[in-house]
Specification:
60 residues; mainly alpha; 4 helices; 63% helix; 0% strand
Amino acid sequence: MITSRSRRFLSGKELCLWSIHAIRDGGGFGSIIGRNSFQRMKPATLTLLDTIMKHYAGKV
């Protein structure tokens, strides 16, 4: 379990995925992402977006 105190030690990708988990677990169906994904190289961006979609689909 990640608490609010331990969140500050997460990297950009980890924090993004933690937020996705929190939104999904709270009943949300999506989130607005931008800078966190699109400042990466294209292969890394596509991998991150694929991972996010899997989290929302409940596959991760």
